Amino acid sequence: MTILSFLVHIMSGATLLLFSVHFMRTGIERRLGPWVGRAFNDSSSVPALIAKGGLLGFSMQGGTAVLLLASMLASTGTVSSAAATFIAFGAEIGSAVAVNVLHITPTIVGPLMILIGGWLFHNMGVASKSKETGRIILGLGLIFLALSLIRAAVTPLQGSPYLSGALELIGSDPVNAALLGIGLTLLMHSSLVALLTAAALLANFNMPPTIILGLVLGCNIGSAILPLWLLRSQPKAAQVVARSAATLRSAFALFFLVGLIFSGIDRLVILQNTSPTEVLLLGHLAFNAALLLLVPLVGRTNRLFVSKDAIPSQVRLAPSQLQESPELALPEFKRHVNVMLETLGSMIETATATVPDHALMLSAENRTNKEFTSLRRRFTQLPDLPPHILEQVREMLDYAIRIERCADVLSGKYMNIRREEESGLYTLTTESALAVESQLAELKKTMVLAQHVFWKEDCSGARKLVQLKQAMTSLDFANRRNHFEQIRKNNHIALRSSDQYLELTAALKDITSKLATIGYVVLERHGELKES
């Protein structure tokens, strides 16, 4: 019965620890969302990318979340696979530092954080940054509480013949310890949680350093394998970074594991006077720091996993080629703007899905920003162009600004409202939901027609595009009147969700208006638009 009680208490503590890390990570993602987007770029040096990854890994309490995000961004071309792998390496170091910091738990800190964080989380406004700060503080306090529960569950079992026998079995071979580490990490979906649980256990039991290091290596192998499972249903391009990182980390860990096997159980004399917990925490940090020795192999390893039939990047003309052939400036700019349009179309589908993919939206927004930055840079490198071509290039640049603004509205305001809907903070009435659907249908028609008009400069299509914009304005006006009529009839659901409904419909109307501007440009260029 003692063992059954121990298992219940230890697993409940581990479950609370896993929930606390996830809860805290959610707050950090919402507070640091814009910075995370800017952190992923190829312009940084390798040390800077590793440092950014370290900060993200520490902040997000784990390297797996950072690696998944980096993999998705690499698959869309936002960053190179090498840059994403460097960030993933840095994230593991940041996660290792987080393990060491979280293990240091002064008794008063946990309850104090729960008190302060809980008050902020429950008393601040829904969209308030202070609420997310409260979430982070509360999550950290719950982590400390979970660790104290695990320690309390372990303490009564000191000297237990059953547990001593189990530990003796594990402690007889570093391979057994490594297998336990792999199993714990995969079971808990987090090496950070697995290592913190192990650290709490080792505080009450003595094990040889060789066996503890075997457990550390197992946790790192499990952490390397886990993203492969989580990304199994994603396209091959999204798995390149995860496969590369898993290959390097697993090979490095196996190399050290073989060294531990041949060194013998009592050979690490230098660690004999070090406590088991310190061996675990410092060993994990040292392993991930030593992993940086493999940075020169990242490029070659990534190439092993790049699909041979992958679609290459678009051809990009050098500034000197534009100098020699100024007539190519117009099609070059059109290609850039078209990529932005295509990406915006995918963002509309993602943002309006039944369950929106927030990571995919962040990736798409980064790609839009990257194309827009490239477009502005190309504009500064343009040679002297004939006035009529230069005017068309400027019109495209203006349109690109509007597309970039549409992407910002979707990834920012629109996704924030969808996130509130997922959290159950509001529910639209049936009438309001149908009104949003009707405006979304008009937006999708506008999106398709805008791409056609942009490439073909078709006057007939341009007139239809302008008419779609006008139809959206009329539809939005009618839907708004119906919404206020619901409120006037004391529909409490409509009243509670009014802010969100009006924001959603305004965003759809705003995006439609910006996309339709290409219709006015084409009509004016062909003399079919009146001056007044």
Query: Between the first and last Cα atoms, what is the distance in angstroms?
Result: 87 Å
Count of structural domains: 2
Distinct helical segment count: 21
User: How many E strands?
Assistant: 0
State the secondary-structure class.
mainly alpha
Share in helix: over 70%
Q: Which oligomeric form is depicted?
A: single chain
Rg computed from alpha carbons, rounded to a whole number of angstroms: 28 Å
- Low-confidence runs of at least 5 consecutive residues: 308-313
Order of helices and strands: HHHHHHHHHHHHHHHHHHHHH
Could you walk me through the main structural features you see in this protein, from its secondary elements to its overall organization?
About 80% of the residues lie in helices and about 0% in strands. The chain has helices spanning about 1-40, 45-60, 65-75, 80-105, 110-125, 130-155, 160-170, 175-190, 190-200, 210-230, 235-265, 275-290, 300-305, 320-325, 330-350, 360-380, 385-420, 430-455, 460-490, 490-495, 500-525. α3 (about 65-75) runs antiparallel to α4 (about 80-105) and α19 (about 460-490) runs antiparallel to α21 (about 500-525). It is flat, with a radius of gyration of 28 Å. The chain contains 21 helices and no strands. The protein has two domains: about 1-305, no CATH class; about 320-525, Phosphate transport system protein phou homolog 2, domain 2 (Methane Monooxygenase Hydroxylase, Chain G, domain 1, Up-down Bundle). The model is unreliable at about 310-315 (pLDDT under 50). With about 525 residues, the chain is mostly helical.
